[in-house]
Amino acid sequence: MNFVSVRIITGAIARLVDFYERVTGVPADWSTEDFAEIRTASATLAIGSTRTVPLFSPGSAGPADNRSVILEFLVDDVDGVYENLTGIVEEFVKEPTTMPWGNRSLLFRDPDGNLVNFFTPVTPGAVEKFAR
Predict the structure, then answer these.
(1) Which positions ≥6 away from 119 have C-beta within 8 Å?
(2) Is 23 exposed, middle or buried (0-12, 13-18, 19+ CB in 10 A)?
(3) Which of 9, 37, 57 finishes a domain?
(4) Please, what is the end-to-end C-alpha distance for the chain in angstroms?
(5) Kind of pairing, strands 103-109 and 91-98?
(6) What is the domain count for the chain?
(7) Which helix (H) or strand (E) holds 24?
(8) Same domain for 53 and 80?
(9) 62 assigned to some structural domain
(10) Any idea what the CATH number is for the domain that residue 128 is in?
(11) CB–CB of 85/71 below 8 Å?
């Protein structure tokens, strides 16, 4: 088994795709007007419009309704990224902070309210864990 993607359902797909293109610097690959993907080396962030939900099961997912999942992105310099996100991100939850497990993390919300963590490993153990 290989975990390959996370999908966000949104009522404003163009807005959300634009946001993730801007914060990640990765252009989206649009399959249809209702589905796009931000592909990185290790995983894909899929973004689907609410019009895709009935393809799975009507009412099975809803937009802007997540309060339990954090989308996490490994970045080279979280402090530098934080400076670059000013003007793009409307709601920072936590400025860059070194966490007890050794990552320096920046938490913010996307336009739908999903929690996003950009992080950089800073302790030897965390650096080793994410060495490529």
Answers:
(1) 72, 73, 74, 75, 78, 99, 103, 104, 105, 106
(2) buried
(3) 57
(4) 20
(5) antiparallel
(6) 2
(7) helix 13-24
(8) no
(9) no
(10) 3.10.180.10
(11) no
pLDDT (tens digit, 0 to 9) for every residue of the chain, 132 residues total?
999 999 999 999 999 999 999 999 999 999 999 999 999 999 999 999 999 999 999 999 999 998 899 999 999 999 999 999 999 999 999 999 999 999 999 999 999 999 999 999 999 999 999 886
Do 78 and 107 form a contact (C-beta atoms < 8 A)? no
Q: Contact at 8 Å (CB) between 12 and 20?
A: no
Dihedral angle of Cα 42, 5, 23, 118, to the nearest 10 degrees: -70
- Burial of 39 from C-beta contacts in 10 A (0-12 / 13-18 / 19+): middle
- Is the whole model's pTM more than 0.70, yes or no? yes
Tell me, yes or no, whether 52 lies in a domain. yes
